[in-house]
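call fold target=Methyltransferase type 11 domain-containing protein
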Amino acid sequence: MAQQTVDNPFFARFWTVLSAHESRGMRELRRANLLGLSGRVLEVGAGTGTNFAFYPDSVTEVVALEPETRLAPLAKAAAAAAPVPVTVIESTIETMSATEPFDAVVCSLVLCSVADPDGVLRQLNAVLRPGGELRYFEHIASSGWRGGLQRLADATIWPRFAGNCHTHRETERSIAGAGFVIDTARREAMLPAWVPLPAQEVALGRARKELLAVE
């Protein structure tokens, strides 16, 4: 049975410090990922609530899931200052209770850390209304020497250090495999190419759930 909450003290402290000192470039990527959203939104893995300030006022409600017990209180504090209504729920997506369909789902640096990304993406497809959007901002698999470094890191220390993050995941392939149609996608380097860290590149994109066929 999937866990409803997570308690990882080291990662929670690390992420709290990191998210409080994000670069301007990182903040702009977050803003771009949320641009143009409207209606009711599900955010998966809210962390400390870093996205909340960037939701446009066309969003009527955000339901934000954060299973890390030490990050959820920080997300709730950020929700209180958000420009749109945000409800933070301490739960994983795998154990989220049934709900009315959402107009959009937001994933920011979270699909790398779930145990079954393909299963989670199928679940996200199921909670979206037909035509609803998935907005993603995610670590992705690299090629060449960095891809080899990612595979080594993922098999050893990196997931323990970084909250179960797995950097060598074909996330966009999984998104398409879960029934989404990717409309726009781009890749951004978060660090210089020579920096020997596995989490160097991210994908930013928009995908949609196909409309139901009319018989």
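return ok
The helical segments are 9-20, 24-34, 72-80, 117-127, 144-155, 158-161, 171-177. The chain has a mean pLDDT of 93.
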